[in-house]
Amino acid sequence: MSAPTKSLGSRRLLTSFGPLLGLLLVCLLFAALRPATFISRDNFAIILQQTAVIGISALGMTLVIIAGGIDLSVGSIIGLTTVVIALLLQQHRPAWQALLGGVAAASLCGAFSGLLITRLRLLPFVVTLGMMGTLRGVAKGLAGEQPIYPDDTWINGLMSLGKTGLPGGVWLMLGLSAAVALLLRHTRFGRHVFAVGSNELTARLCGVPVERVKLLVYVLGAGFAGIGGVLQFSYLTCGDPTTGVGLELNIIAAVVIGGASLSGGQGTVAGTLVGALIMTVVANGCTKLGLANWVQEIVTGGIIILAVFLDFLRRRGAERD
């Protein structure tokens, strides 16, 4: 076997199993430091519960990043979704209508971003950065800059840790993960997403409807953030226009840690879930160690920098091959 072939095989192996190895090492670290509180069935259930919002939102971000895009507005979309759900429930709408209304509002935000990117040829970073501030302002305006507490409905139970097992939000995350994995692996749209992210010009020459694919990717990405917002509403039991601030960084980091490339054309659902778990386990472990919030923020920021650095190494290795 030649040296380039060995290098390519080693990189693929690292990309495939590196995130899982990282998760194992992080778990072993906190298990060694705090065995009494970290290693327990209840704590693992809490970790999965706390992963659900990031995990579901990261599924949509996976599609966006594989297609070569980025969406910095997902944290604001999550906050806006909680406010829309709370307002609809205050109007005595059925819970299912409030849920669908929240997700629909989120999807419309993604459609608007997608249209600006595909029709006006604006940079995704600039568009979604602007949307991040705009949607946060809209959420605060709709809520009157304060949390909204509607009457309890079955939505509030989606993130409850009952005696019967995991919260419904965790099962929803696993079900949606399977659906997105099948979408990427076994559908024409999935192949088009990878093609657009790998080389947009080549994809266009091969007949791929690039603009349509990119628009749909942003709609789906925002829609998944909306579903994450539903779970966030359930967790908070209120519509909070300030929730989700900075969450977009954790979501993007989860996708990149999981093996996706910020340059597009690469990523997996399994890797994204592992990346989301790493982010949650680190936050949970820091809490168990009694670290101050500012220390946790430094650790989280360090993980994000590490994720970007790993993506740089993967891209440099690919260019050399």
Overall description:
The chain has 321 residues and is an all-alpha fold. It has one domain: Orthogonal Bundle (ABC transporter involved in vitamin B12 uptake, BtuC). Helices cover 76% and strands 0% of the residues. The chain is built from 13 helices and no strands. Helix 11 packs parallel to helix 13 and helix 12 packs antiparallel against helix 13. The longest helix is centred in the first third of the chain and has 31 residues. The two termini are 15 Å apart. The model has no long low-confidence stretch (mean pLDDT 90).
Write the layout of secondary structure elements.
Elements: H1 3-33, H2 35-38, H3 41-66, H4 74-90, H5 95-119, H6 124-143, H7 168-186, H8 188-198, H9 200-205, H10 210-236, H11 247-257, H12 269-288, H13 293-320
